[in-house]
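Task 17 of the worksheet. Students: predict the tertiary structure of the chain below and write it out as structure tokens. Keep your answer in the requested format; marks are given for formatting as well as content.
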Amino acid sequence: MLVQQARLGGKWIACNCRGSRVPSPILTPAFLSEAETYYLRRLTSGNRSEHHSDCPFYRDQATNRITHVRCRHAPADPATAYFSALRPTPERLAQRPESGAVDDRTRHASLPRLARLLWRLINLADLNRCQARRLETSPSITSQFKSLLSATRTIEVAPGIELARVFSTHPQALRSRSVFAKLRAMEDHWPAGHAPQAFLALFAHRIRGATLHVADGPPLTLANRIQSPSIVDNRIGGPYLVLILVGQYPDTCGYAALRGYAQPIYSGRRFIPVETALERDAIRSLLSVRTLLDRNAIDLHMEKSLFDILTPFGSCRPSLLLEARSRRSGECRQLAVDLCETRPETASNISDQAHIMTTANTLTIMADDLEQSRLVRRLAIALDL
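Model answer:
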């Protein structure tokens, strides 16, 4: 209860392990969304006292933080079960690690459930795919959101409750608090064992901390910091497609926008998820090349891989999947594109390419390969056109 109240009140907790003569080490309550539990985070800096070595909150600092460590080859599986990211309020705190436990804080950051839910929705809406230019209608932000809304009718948040009933794509639903009113009206009939929750998918130009700057109206502030693949070692700017979770705060605080995941996308007209700035540049170049191929009676389909592909040698996730079809001969070629910031002669890339090669030919592209004439030449060789 102390941790919950400190969390809701935005307060810090002082530890008395150093006694009264030394400034107290400070703890701040936090919520671990993946484990659905509260824990106490140590606030440390050169001006703050460290906990005493006998204190339960004393631990050596980890060498790397998950905000600095990222691997794009980390496994990515679809979120299973219902389209939900909130459980009933936890009744216990995260526990102190067992003595002698391995300090594994250098591990790669796990994918937030909100991210996998958003990818699942994008995949169902086919927003991660681009058809041949002659088959595609002119994309727009309206058509992208329309596809998202259509996909919500096939997913359930809880037994008997469609996602479409608690899903919105306009920030006004949050500003007017109509999404809170809708949840209050539904909570008495919400299935037992499932926490009432709603979702918003919003287009944002910029995020900062817990604030997102939407295209329509003033910024919105969430209860917690917005998660994003943009980290210290991989800075990638907007625009973003942000999935916001609305649920109930503990005790008497009512409903609030609890958490959010900001997925960088190609543009406001194409909600194709991107993981790096290079990936956004590559999609732009491939869309341009698609026009040139269309003039030569070749249809180019493109897909952004969101989840792992299972092969006889293991799972892999290429950056992009291409399919070229000749309208003259009817021949079809598939190509897996692997985007590399640096030279691909590393063991991890070679291993990953070996997995990709079992499903399609592989083309490794770097930043200097995105010049149009060079990219066309490399695609023609790889696709044997």
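Marker's comment: The longest helix spans residues 277-295. The longest strand covers residues 198-208.
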